[in-house]
Write a structure and sequence with these properties.
Helix content is 22%, strand content 40%. With 136 residues, the chain is α+β, with helices and mostly antiparallel strands.
């Protein structure tokens, strides 16, 4: 079951530079910056109500995000929906004909487990599903 929008992710070339708009102009507080080794990205979060804006920057030259920034430039990268049981959700989506980038959930930021739906199944929008760790 989909519970809420967890975050909207925005691809940037440089988090430190991009952060200034959100902190100085929108007056949001940066909740933290971390490197997600698995996805080769560096991410920064701004909490807004029960959702977040996530800035994502490539953490290495071979990050898949490098190609995205080269072809599309900075901007909205994906929308993340929180689900209660990601393993079951992925199975259900496949049964309903969704094409998954991740056939099985993998580690995401903040000890979450994540899986991406291919934009070809979702009208060109990259959708991430995540499940928060048990203690949250
Ligand atoms: Zn995300």
């Amino acid at each position: 079951m989909v519970k809420r929008i967890d975050h909207i992710a925005i691809a940037v070339n440089d988090i430190d530079e991009a952060v200034t708009f959100y902190t100085d102009v929108l007056k949001l507080d940066l909740s933290g910056v971390e490197v997600v080794t698995e996805q080769k990205t560096k991410v920064g979060f701004f909490k807004i109500g029960e959702s977040n804006i996530e800035l994502i920057q490539p953490a290495s030259d071979d990050s898949p995000l490098v190609k995205f920034l080269e072809t599309k430039g900075p901007g909205i990268h994906h929308i993340c929906l929180e689900v209660d049981d990601i393993q079951r959700e992925v199975e259900e989506l496949k049964k309903r004909g969704a094409r998954m980038i991740d056939e099985n959930p993998r580690p995401g930021a903040h000890n979450t487990r994540v899986a991406f739906i291919h934009p070809k199944s979702s009208g060109g929008v990259l959708i991430e599903l995540n499940q928060l760790p048990e203690d949250k």
